[in-house]
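Homework help thread (please don't just give me the answer)

Our assignment gives two proteins as sequence + structure token strings and asks us to describe the second one. The first is just a warm-up. Here they are:
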Amino acid sequence: MLRAISTALALAWLVLPAPSARAEDVPPAPAVPSPIAPPTLHGNLALSLQEAIAMGLENNLNLEVQRHAPLIADEEAQIAWGSYDPEFYGETTYLDSKTPNAVALNQQTTTSLKGVEGEGGFRGLVPWLGASYQLSLYSSRLETNSTIQSVSPAMRSIVSIGLNVPLLRGLIWNEPWTRVKTTRILRDAELENFRREVMDTVRDIEGAYWGLIANEEQLHVEEKSLETAKALLEQTKTQYEVGVVSKVEVTEAEAGVAAREFSRITAENTYLSAQDRLINLVLGPNLTAESKLVIEPTDRPEDYVAYDIDVEEAVRKALEYRPELAVAQREIERQEVALKFAKNQRLPQLDLVASYGNEGLSGRENPDLSCVFGASRLPECADLPGVDDPGGPGTPDIPPTVFPRTGVTVGRNYRDSYDNFFTGDAADRIVAGGIFSIPIPNTAGRHGVSMSELELRRALVSKRRVEQQIVLEVRLAARNLSSAQEGIEASQRRVLAAEEQLRAEKIRLEYGESTPFDVLLRERDLVGAETEKIFAFRVYRTSVTDLDRFQGTILQTRNIAIDAVGRLR
């Protein structure tokens, strides 16, 4: 069953589209479903390296955590654009106030004002420019007992369009637009960070895969060494019983068995830890305390091809493809934006303010209206209807016409106050002006620029440091790969020599020309030679992986599409 599962993994892996020269240029790939349901972690699971990588990209928890970062950064970028969403607003106020009268023309001792007023409309910011706009409608219905107020209740409406345009500080490099720019850059940086995490995950899986094979082979070497020591002990006991060797030599053989048992126990523990590490990388949260799964690698490190390494070409590729360098470049871009913003904030504030609107009025004649200034009566009062009973119940409504003595066209309801909006008869409201301010001596502005310049300088130095680190890593990986290739050949020759020396020492022991201690020394030399060989093959495989990782080409060479990997599981 597990073998069928691993075959399904391989097929799922092969359907992934091969990326182009750069991972970020890969077209969106179709959704890749999880290749298998999480297997029960018992029994044996045969896995090739390619299958292990496929499972790891599906199940690795570190990668799953990092998958969220670009998506969160993209939401941050959308939130930044939200600053330019038009805002609908509204507010209303109830008013009931009484004011002691201080106006001689008003016959009331206390002037009352009662009613509601409110304003609503749309307002917002203009992208890039930094200007703000507002479209508003104000309405009120206010009643008064003032004897000099012609209309009560008065229903007033004002419609206006306003614009505030910064000419210096806030022009282009204002806070909302700067945030839009920086969140875009941070989103790109998170994409590069995710690509780096995928590369590191692939590298870790390959390292754990070859490490498991190396630890398994080391365990076999230690088991073989233990068997050899046990056979030597039995032989020495037999020789002791016939009087050929002394009791001391039997003790030496027993010590040799005990030492090799300890080495085997240590090797077995290391092998089981390597199993857990690979299971954790490829199966994610499926590893539990009761798990008894044994992964059986099917690829062998002995199948290798010698590499002709061009360090200069490897460094060139690394400087082109490494996500760490792209992240460093994004940080430089972010600091450049921050510097532009800081320089803009150092400027004085000089804003152009303009608005245009119309005002309308409707209502009824104030029942408390008086045409008397002190004890005198105005001549035109006699012409007004209801003047003999000012404020009485018989006072008629004024139809929508020119109100006497004021020249203002009024009516009896709200819609009458809108009638003349944007017509030649409208009561216009035109406002134009400017706002100027500058802090003295502008400490925050000047030091903000200085700090941003230092931040940018630090980002440039950090990029140079990353470039230097890339060169060191590529040189190290190339050197390790070259030495590993040479070390494989040398370790193979040493194993052959150690095997021959052990064989000869055993023959000498049979003829009484050697001791079990000498045989154990030769056998330990063979174990050391075989360990070196295992280590050389492991270093070779991990160096190949490291070179691809440090060149930034590990995803391309393994046909991993970053867009398919990036989707949430």
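The one we have to describe:
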Amino acid sequence: MTKPCTILIGGVAGQGLLTIGHLLAKVLVRSGYYLVVTQSYMSRIRGGHNSFAIRVAPTPVAAPSETIDVLIALDARSVDEHLADLAEDGIIIMDGAVAAETGDRLCLRIPAGEMGLAALFNIVAAGVASGLLALDAGVLTRTLGEEAETLASAGVALQAGLDWQRQSGVHRPLPEPTAPMPRIMVNGNEALALGAMAGGLKFAAFYPMTPGKSVILALLAHADRLGLVVEQAEDEIAAINMALGASFAGAPALVATSGGGFALMVEGVSLAAMTETPVVIVVAQRPGPATGLPTRTEQGDLEFVLHSGHGEFPRAILAPGSPEQCFSLAARAMDIAEQSQGPVFILTDQFLADSYRSVAPFDPTAVPTVLPHERAPDDTPTYQRYALTDSGISPRALPGRGDGLAVADSDEHTEDGHITEDLGVRVQMVEKRLRKLALLERLTLAPEYCGPASADLLLVCWGSAGGAVTEAAELLAARGIRAAALHFSQVWPLVPDQFLTYLQQARTVLGVEGNATGQFARLLRRECGFAVHGQIGRFDGLPLTPEFILRRLAESGW
């Protein structure tokens, strides 16, 4: 195979599909391959249909695919669910004791029961798949030792799978990687956590909510070694207020949540703005309203986050499209929050949060690190926390350091921080806070343009949609269509001078988003007066794929 290969493991929660999914993914990364993992799981502890899909190639890949090349079915339903997506030359690996209609597809039915390994069929299947793809047995065995080090029989089951595959005579080796190099396997939320820590994070608060909680779990794994305090609060209201208290005291702070949890944090967003306290808020999107589809993905919270909090005040919203951007933008968010003295948001979603990729090791020295104690002004008895300045940024002293009195209040206040109802001062303070927008605009990241100038078709996207949209544009270009992609990794503030020319020069501009209403397209029209010519939206809980985009384009005549 020279094209990317997709391996999908299907089964119910509790059958061990994550165990072999992680095993195969790690072996592939350690063997020098690139991959994209897509996890689909139902909102239950056991049962339901779950899947772990690995798209692998010897060259970079950035999006999932709907076409399956190797289906590892841990139960009959997995065959029923995914047979239609199996490539014509695709292969099914399943337990010979499972009854399922496989049509004319090549099916490797493993007699796990006869081997005495029915309870470890998932490991046997991993051995068969590894042999099928010609993965290095030594790397496989060492990696299994990390994944199942307390289970001696796992090694027996793995070897049984390798031996059985060898006797079957069926081989589908992956092409050799062209330039293997050291890479790590990391998902979006893990990369966010690493980037935040590299950026100087010292305090994180949370109330657990899928899919945002894995950011916190990743932080907890390193907390002791890095001197990081992680606190589980009684609810999301307490979580954001704890973070604001820590930040006020000088500890760079973050909260991570999802849509329903963020709904409870909104008043805290306004408090951060009024007290001019830095805080980073990670919102991992999932379908709503209410509980919605808690384990699926969507890009439906952009307008909610943009307009959250009562009153008028500036903010920045970053939307990474890959684990590499999760790392760099998390550190950048810490820095922007410190510079602007207010709330900064990172919008991710279930797809990106749970999507493992193979990436070059991150360089923590390549990102800015927040050191708030070094930015404190000279303390004097006349220190004014909210002094009126041309930039809107006032000197920020930390409480307990020096003679200056650090005052904060949720009411409107004078320059020294005390409550006021002077309406003239009110106007001055609103204008002062709004002047921070100029700083945020100077720090705004330009979108990434990929494709020919003056394209016939320009696909505009943001956040996690970037990989699928870029690949769709490349596939269109291979057909002779002058197609391009414009990906925004920062969705607020918008600086039209960075991208308006691309929009105006393209013959047709379509918005591609993981929501039903084209939220980012509406934002573009509001901010720069440009109306996209059409919209492709996905809101069924599944991630955008190149195939989905191309189908929708075909329906509209492309």
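TA reply:
I won't write it for you, but here's a hint about the kind of observation we're looking for: The chain is about 35% helix and 20% strand.
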